[in-house]
Each structure stands twice: as structure tokens, then as C-alpha cells.
Design a protein that fits this description.
single chain; 35% helix; 14 strands; alpha+beta; Elongation Factor Tu (Ef-tu), domain 3
């Protein structure tokens, strides 16, 4: 046992001994000395950790990966569903047929309109009549000049030619109207075919064959995941630093992981005063659909302090 200036030094049990990075002055009493050791140890260990977190907080933000858009596909006209060609998880391209309504009546109307649009007999007949009336008018005009025909007969021939011209124009107009009616009936038929307006993934099918689809109900939900949206809220201190076009790095949560480049596309001009944050959106390319939507992530902006 060693003796200090104010008396013998008390020995701590081995379990209470703590190795300090610097000398600790002797204080009588195990409790006071133990509290001091613990406090200094916590400060020496936690201090660098807190400093490191604060140093990286300006460039490291929590985010969420979301679909570019989610569309609920419906029908502009009500009808009985004939077939649904896709199910949940199917990959669809823009313009792909995903469902059809029963269209037997519309198909019959299209066939009728095609027959009318293809019938040119009225135009041919009117053209032949016009040609005859013009020849008749020319003969009457020659006879009129030689005074071998009555003036009334010559006027009748001329009027017949004018009437034939009007009949031909009427026949041509009727044929054009028939063609326009064909185009209208085709569009009505096309409305009973539901196509995907985007490239994406089918995430829900709400109706099936034999069910009745209303004009305000939806049949299929399609999610566009190329590109993806990355939504993040940053502190107001980043105002002016994060701008549209800035490149960022997105780190999805496990088990996906990895690092993916993204570009800032939106910086909100209306701030959230309650949380003192700014809404920022990044666009994340996902051409191979390797990244799913709905993931938590971290986003970093290299060079932004």
C-alpha cells in the first residue's frame, strides 16, 4: 500500500479500474472518482461521434424512392368487360392492349360504315350525267349560233348541265360524309379497347371478364418505374445550394443497396415553415427495372457542404 500526501491511497477493485487517455487527479472516495471517470469517458468517446455526425448532416439526407406516376386505367364509356389481357406484375409498354369491352354492336356499325364509304356508284352516276349534259349543252350552243334551235331549248340544255354539276358535288359530299362517319364509328370501337398510356408495371387488377365497367371506375393500375422519383426534404440552410440539374447519389436501403446517380428535377419554391425544410425531387433512371419503388434511401450531393 502506497502513502500519498494526505493519507494512504485507496485501491479500486480491478473491475472498477478504467484506463484514461490522460492522468486523473486523486480524489478521495470511490463514488466521486468513479462518477468522474465515467463522465470523462463518455465525453471522450461520444464527442468525436457527435462531431462526425454533424459534419456530414449537410450532405446526407433521408429520402424515399417512388414511382414516376401511378395511373388507374378506366374506360370512357361503360360496358361489359370481354377480356383482361394482363395481371398484377405484368410489364406493359405504351400502347399495349390491356383489356377490351364487348363491342359486337360497334363492330357491326363499323362494317356498315365501311360499306357506305366504299360505295362510289352515286358519284360515278352523277359524273356520267354531267358529261352527257355538257355534250348536250355544247351541241345546243352550236345550233343556237346558227339559229337552227330555239333559244328556250338551248337554255334548257345549259340549265341541265348546271343541275348535273350540282348533283355531282352532292354525290361527292355524301361520299365524304360516309368516310367521316366510318372514322367516327372506328373511334367509338377503339374506345372499347383499353391501352396502356405509359411503360410500366401492372400493380393491381380490380375488374375481370364478365364484370360491368362504369365510366368512373378503373380496371387496372399501372405504375411507371422508369424513371423513378426520389423525394427528399432538406434543411433551409441548403437553399441556393441545391438547384435543378444538380447531380446526386442515391443509396437504397437493404437488401437492395448500391449507389445510383440521380438528377435534381424539382426544388419547391414554397417552403415548409413548420419543419424548416425544402422539398426536393430527383429523377433516378431505371431502364432495366432493377430498382423497385417504395424503398427508403439516403441521398448525397457531392461537393455540397
Amino acid at each position: 500500500m502506497s502513502v500519498g500526501a494526505s493519507g494512504p491511497a485507496e485501491q479500486l477493485p480491478a473491475s472498477d479500474r478504467v484506463t484514461m487517455p490522460f492522468p486523473v487527479p486523486f480524489v478521495r472516495g470511490n463514488r466521486l472518482r468513479r462518477a468522474l471517470v465515467v463522465a470523462i469517458s463518455i465525453i471522450s468517446i461520444a464527442g468525436p461521434t457527435i462531431a462526425a455526425e454533424n459534419a456530414g448532416s449537410d450532405t446526407h439526407f433521408a429520402c424515399l424512392i417512388q414511382p414516376k406516376m401511378v395511373l388507374k386505367l378506366g374506360t370512357p364509356i361503360p360496358g361489359l368487360i370481354k377480356e383482361v389481357l394482363v395481371d398484377r406484375g405484368a410489364v406493359v409498354k405504351k400502347g399495349d392492349v390491356v383489356a377490351r369491352l364487348d363491342s359486337s354492336v360497334e363492330e357491326a356499325a363499323v362494317n356498315l360504315a365501311k360499306a357506305r364509304a366504299a360505295d362510289t356508284s352515286a358519284v360515278v352516276s352523277a359524273q356520267a350525267k354531267l358529261d352527257f349534259q355538257r355534250r348536250k349543252e355544247q351541241r345546243a350552243d352550236q345550233l343556237k349560233r346558227s339559229q337552227n334551235i330555239a333559244i328556250a331549248t338551248a337554255d334548257e340544255a345549259e340549265s341541265g348541265a348546271r343541275v348535273a354539276e350540282a348533283d355531282l358535288r352532292q354525290a361527292e359530299a355524301n361520299l365524304q360524309i360516309a368516310k367521316l362517319d366510318l372514322a367516327r364509328t372506328i373511334e367509338v370501337l377503339n374506345q372499347r379497347t383499353i391501352r396502356s398510356p405509359i411503360d410500366g408495371i401492372v400493380i393491381e387488377r380490380t375488374l375481370g371478364p364478365g364484370e360491368y365497367a362504369f365510366d368512373q371506375s378503373h380496371l387496372i393500375t399501372v405504375s411507371q418505374i422508369n424513371p423513378l422519383n426520389v423525394e427528399v426534404y432538406v434543411p433551409l440552410s441548403q437553399y441556393g445550394k441545391i438547384t435543378v440539374g444538380l447531380k446526386g447519389e442515391v443509396y437504397p436501403e437493404s437488401p437492395v443497396g448500391g449507389k445510383y446517380p440521380a438528377t435534381v428535377t424539382v426544388v419547391d419554391q414554397v417552403f415548409d415553415a413548420a419543419s424548416a425544410t425544402i422539398g426536393v425531387r430527383l429523377e433516378l433512371p431505371n431502364p432495366d427495372y432493377t430498382l423497385p419503388a417504395g424503398l427508403k434511401c439516403d441521398v448525397r450531393f457531392p461537393g455540397i457542404g
